[in-house]
Design brief:
Blueprint: E1 6-14, H1 21-24, H2 38-41, H3 44-47, E2 68-73, H4 84-92, E3 97-100, H5 105-114, E4 117-120, H6 123-133, E5 140-144, E6 149-151, E7 157-159, H7 164-172, H8 176-181, H9 184-197
Helix pairs in contact: 4-5
Length: about 200
C-alpha cells in the first residue's frame, strides 16, 4: 500500500446521502480477473453519458477538480453490497481520503485494508468542507495524517480522530498481511515458547 503522510490536492463535494457501492463501482466492472481499469469504473454512470461521453457538469470532469485527491461526501457513504472494487477504483482515480459524517461498515473495512483514509467529522464541519470543496477558489486541502489535521482556506486547521493502529498502518503503508508480518519476531517467540511448554504437540 502507498503510505499516507501529508497529501495536498483538490477536494470535490459529493453531498448525496446513501451513495452505495453500485454508484461508486457499477456491476459491469466486476467481471475482470485483475484490478486494472477500475479508475474508468469509479462513478462511471455519473461521469459518463451515452457513448461514454464525459458529462461536463459532473464535478470530477471539470478542470478545476482535475487533481482531486479528496471527496467530501454525504452520510452513509459506501452502503450496499460488499464491493472491494469500489475502493480499488477510487484509489486508481487518485482519491486518497474521503471525509464524511458516516460510512458503511464493510466499505470502511475495505478502505482500511487498501490504504484509503476515511475521516469522520461532525455535520457542521462536513458542511463547511463541502462548501469549500464546491468553490474552485477554496477547494484545495492538505491532510496531515501524522498530525491528524486538515488544512483548509486561510490556513485554518480542522483536527480529526483516528484509531492509533489504523493510523500507524496507513502512515507506514501496511495492509493486514504487512501488519501481521510486522509482529513476526513476537509471533516466532510465542511459537517457540508454546512448543517448549507443550512438546507433545510436535
Amino acid at each position: 500500500m502507498q503510505p499516507f503522510t501529508t497529501v495536498t490536492g483538490a477536494a470535490a463535494a459529493l453531498p448525496a446521502a446513501n451513495t452505495d457501492t453500485d454508484v461508486i463501482m457499477p456491476k459491469q466492472f466486476l467481471k475482470g480477473i485483475d484490478r486494472s481499469g477500475l479508475d474508468r469504473g469509479a462513478f462511471h454512470d455519473l461521469r459518463f453519458g451515452a457513448g461514454e461521453v464525459p458529462r461536463p457538469d459532473f464535478v470530477l470532469n471539470r478542470p478545476e477538480w482535475a487533481d482531486t485527491r479528496f471527496l467530501v461526501v454525504g452520510p452513509n457513504f459506501g452502503c450496499g453490497s460488499s464491493r472491494e472494487h469500489a475502493v480499488w477504483g477510487l484509489l486508481q482515480l487518485g482519491i486518497r481520503a474521503i471525509i464524511g459524517t458516516s460510512f458503511a461498515g464493510i466499505f470502511a473495512d475495505n478502505a482500511a485494508n487498501n490504504g484509503l483514509l476515511l475521516i469522520t467529522l461532525d455535520p457542521g464541519q462536513v458542511a463547511t468542507l463541502s462548501a469549500l470543496a464546491s468553490d474552485p477558489a477554496y477547494n484545495r486541502l492538505t491532510i496531515d495524517l501524522p498530525a491528524q489535521t486538515i488544512a483548509v482556506a486561510l490556513e485554518e486547521l480542522i483536527p480529526f480522530e483516528i484509531a492509533p493502529l489504523r493510523k500507524d498502518a496507513l502512515v507506514r503503508g501496511l495492509d493486514a498481511i504487512g501488519t501481521t508480518l510486522d509482529q513476526a519476531p513476537l509471533i516466532r517467540a510465542f511459537e517457540a515458547r508454546h512448543h517448549a511448554d507443550q512438546p507433545w504437540l510436535g
